[in-house]
Amino acid sequence: MAMEMRLPVARKPLSERLGRDTKKHLVVPGDTITTDTGFMRGHGTYMGEEKLIASVAGSVERVNKLICVKALKTRYIGEVGDIVVGRITEVQQKRWKVETNSRLDSVLLLSSMNLPGGELRRRSAEDELAMRGFLQEGDLISAEVQAVFSDGAVSLHTRSLKYGKLGQGVLVQVSPSLVKRQKTHFHDLPCGASVILGNNGFIWIYPTPEHKEEEAGGFIANLEPVSLADREVISRLRNCIISLVTQRMMLYDTSILYCYEASLPHQVLSPGPLPSSLICELLCCLFRDNMHISPILSQHPSV
C-alpha cells in the first residue's frame, strides 16, 4: 500500500510563481531591490548598506547587470525616434519653443521642417520673417525627436509630410509611461476617427480625413465643420482613454478599440470616464484565453 506524505513548506511569493514574461516587480521608495553586489546601479536606485534600494515608485527593469526603476508617473524623457505631440509656446529666431511634457521646452528649428508645399531649398530671410505664419503660439503639432541634448532638452523635426500642424480634434494628456511603444503611433480606427499616440503622453484624437493633403506640407489646418456623429465618436474615444488611464492600463490602438466597442451600448452623456463595469468587461476581453482571442489581439501577443 503506497502512502504519500507532504510536509509544510513556506509558500513562495506570487511574483516568483508567475512566469518570467508576466512578472512585474513594483517597488516604492525605500524598498530593497536586491542584496547582490554584482549588479550596477541605474536610474531610480541608490546603494545603501550594501543593498540596492529604490528611490522612486515604479517597476524594476533589468538589462544584463544594470538595474533601474521606471517611474510610474514622471515627466517625458525624450529618445531619438519618438513621436510626440506638442504645443508651440514661443517663436524665436529661426526656431520655435514647443511644450512636450518634458522638464525643458523642446526646440523645432526652421531648418528642421518642410516648407509649405514640400519645397526643398535653403531657408532664406523671407522664411524667417514668415515663421509666425507657419506656426504661432498655441498651435498644436506632431513631430519626431531628432536629437536629445545633454541637459535633457529635445530637438524636433517635421520633415515628413505626415508631421506638422494639427487641425480640429481633442487633446488628451496622460502619463508617458502608459503609452505603449509601437512601430507606428498614427492609427486610423475603423470607428471613423484617428489617433496620434504621442510618446510624451499627449494623445490627439481627430476625425479621419477623406483624403490626404499631400501638397499642404503639414501647415494647412482643416477647419471644415465636424459632423455630430464624428464629434460623438471623438468624445467616446476620449472617455475610453480616460477610463483606461484610471485603471493604469497601457494605451495602444487595440486596447482603445476594445474599450470603444465595450462602450457602444452606453450613451455619451458627459466628458467624464466610463462606468467601472466597462473596465471589467474590457479586462475579460484582453486577458481571456489565447485560443479564444480575436485576430486583432494576435498582433499584440504581449498583452
UniProtKB/TrEMBL annotation:
Is Nucleus one of the keywords UniProt gives this record?
yes
Where does it live in the cell? Cytoplasm; Nucleus, Nucleolus
What lineage is this protein's organism placed in? Eukaryota, Metazoa, Chordata, Craniata, Vertebrata
Q: What name does this protein carry?
A: Exosome complex component RRP4
The terms describing its cellular component in GO are: cytoplasm; exosome (RNase complex); nucleolus; nucleoplasm
Pfam families (UniProt xref): ECR1_N, KH_6, S1_RRP4
The entry assigns this protein to a family as follows: Belongs to the RRP4 family.
The segment(s) forming the RRP4 S1 domain are 75-146
Where in this chain does the record put each K Homology domain?
169-209
